[in-house]
Amino acid sequence: MTLRTLMLGGVLALAAVSGLAQADTQQMPAKPVPYKYGMPLNIDKVIAMNETPTNDCKVIKADIKFVDKAGKIEDVGYRKMSEACDFQN
User: Fold this and answer.
1) 59 forms bridges with which residues in the sheet?
2) Apex 47 CA angle, 43 and 53, nearest 5
3) What pLDDT was estimated at residue 24?
4) Are the C-beta atoms of 20 and 12 separated by less than 8 Å?
5) C-beta separation of 67 from 42 below 8 A
6) Of the candidates 31, 49, 56, 79, which lies 20 to 30 Å from 16 by C-alpha distance?
7) How far apart are CA 1 and CA 66, in angstroms?
């Protein structure tokens, strides 16, 4: 085995490991940015709204994913009263 073959094998192995590391970070969902009062959102189109499901009337975590006016996808987390509070007298 020549040194050239050994070096080529090492370079290919490093390239494969590097590619796997990059692919792994792209699949991990980003955490939503916490909303702060007065934060400008500039929402153009809502993609999804998610919240913690519960049957109790309490404050829960929710997030909204949207496209802003510049075309960038944003994910913002906030706290709100659960939907269960709508049905209580």
Assistant:
1) 81
2) 110
3) 46
4) no
5) no
6) 31
7) 56
Three-class SS of residue 80?
A: strand
Question: pTM for this structure?
Answer: 0.60
CA distance 39 to 77: 12
The encoded tokens of residue 83 equal: 């939907």
Task: Write down the domain spans for the chain.
Answer: 1-30, 31-89
CA–CA dist 76, 55 (Å, integer): 24
CATH of domain 31-89: 2.30.140
